[in-house]
Amino acid sequence: MNIQFSSSVTKELIKIKRKDKRLIENMEKQLHIFQTNPKHPSLRVHKLTGKLTDAWSISITMKIRMIYHLLDETTAYFFDIGTHDEVYKK
């Protein structure tokens, strides 16, 4: 699976990299898993509903989620990152 990031996610990743090395390591690990096996159980991938219909979520940690759209069968576009409440209550 190919991965693309929105500019807002890229900015957030830069902030996280400066502040929390452990979290960025978890993100790198989970994104690598996503690239090789997008349905891996540790990602807890699920389709969203409501305002986020047609979007999907993966878990980075028990608290942090990344939200994406599938651009096609081989490309995921990540457009949001944050805690459960931050990404689902927008």
What's the structural blueprint in terms of helices and strands?
Blueprint (H helix, E strand, L loop, with lengths): L1 E4 L1 H13 L1 H16 L9 E2 L8 E4 L4 E9 L2 E9 H5 L2
Parallel strand pairs: 1-5
Antiparallel strand pairs: 2-3, 3-4, 4-5
Description of the structure:
- The chain is α+β, with helices and mostly antiparallel strands.
- It has a single domain (2-88), classed as YaeB-like fold (2-Layer Sandwich).
- The protein is built from three helices and five strands.
- It has helices at residues 7-19, 21-36, 84-88; strands at 2-5, 46-47, 56-59, 64-72, 75-83.
- A five-stranded mixed sheet has the order 1-5-4-3-2.
- The radius of gyration is 12 Å and the shape is globular.
Give a short synopsis of this structure.
With 90 residues, the protein is an alpha+beta fold. The chain is built from three helices and five strands.
